[in-house]
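Run: sequence + nicotinamide-adenine-dinucleotide -> complex structure.
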Amino acid sequence: MKQYLVTGGAGFIGSNFIHYLLAKYGSEVRIVNVDKLTYAGNLDNLKDVANAPNYRFVHGDICDARLMDELVPPADVVVNFAAESHVDRSIGAPDDFIKTDIYGAFVLLEAARKYGVKKFIQISTDEVYGSILDGSFKESDRLEPSSPYSASKAGADRLAFSYFVTYGLPVVITRCSNNYGPCQFPEKLIPLFVTNALEDKSLPIYGDGKNVRDWIYVMDHCDAIDFLISHGDDGQVYNIGSGNERTNLDITGIILRELGKPESLMTWVPDRLGHDRRYSVDTAKIRALGWKPGHTFEEAMTSTIRWYRENKWWWEKLKTGEYLEFYKQNYKRDL
Ligand code: NAD
Ligand code: TYD
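>> structure
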């Protein structure tokens, strides 16, 4: 039986990954999920598996070395999703990004080194490369992160690599493009715009709306991580993406059409500071190993939009209190 320590497993991708593992491997895996339950951590994401005999939730912080000394030793595989993950928040308050994304990764790497973990997956991001107007970044391209979020992720990415080079820790680093799917906190573009449209609220488009992201369905990302746990070479970096590049205006149009809502909901707001124009990764390296995404953009977007339409219970309670306060303070607007 393989033992996994999943960090940040109550967040968007981590919770989908836990569902992925349990659905695929059933009782062949044992999973411990350690999550600090920040505003983005949500145990509703794991309600259906909370009582599974081979799953355990631990409320804790990856910066807590004593706790990591307890949780890391039994694990064969550590998958580090835990992070502060929203660029806008990193612009307003970078502190927690440095603490969790860099120092937290360091604490985990130290424990993994001490206790001889067999695989350490550092979930990095395509944002570490920075923006690219033409072509796509390869794993060997230089890193030029431009937000406090992406800079903190780049720090952890290179720190993980250093633990491979210096201590021989079997580290694999993944750099995935923008994810979408169920259980994404409604501060990110797709869940924010879908839930706002469902509530007939405005969709705030930054700048000219022509920034480009490569959108990958979250279950394809989970599948790629699982694939790399078995097939990824130690010390290597792998880009993950699905080649579905869309402008923010394209995404907005799809959401409005799917939900039958008017274009008048679109509102133009001042651009994000340091807004990266385009992200694009070359995925030839992971494809050469035999992985490719299993979902089409059109079908997965339709099912994602449907999920938010059918699961108001999940997101309505998130868009209150602290959430609204954050937007008022940072963007001087209500949502
Ligand atoms: P998320 O914000 O939805 O989830 C992050 C989770 O980490 C939350 O459950 C939060 O409570 C937890 N957490 C935060 N600080 C912690 C700490 N100190 N100790 C323990 N848990 C802590 O983020 P996500 O979108 O699921 O992203 C997961 C990972 O994937 C992140 O590392 C992110 O950088 C990376 N990533 C995300 C995307 C994307 O499109 N969302 C793309 C590429 C890479
Ligand atoms: P986001 O989901 O925050 O992901 P990231 O910045 O990490 O790529 O944003 C995706 C794109 O959508 C990005 O170009 C910024 C833009 N955006 C808006 O135009 N309005 C919004 O309210 C948000 C949250 C994002």
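>> summary
The chain has a mean pLDDT of 96. The domain at 2-331 is CATH 3.40.50.720 (Rossmann fold).
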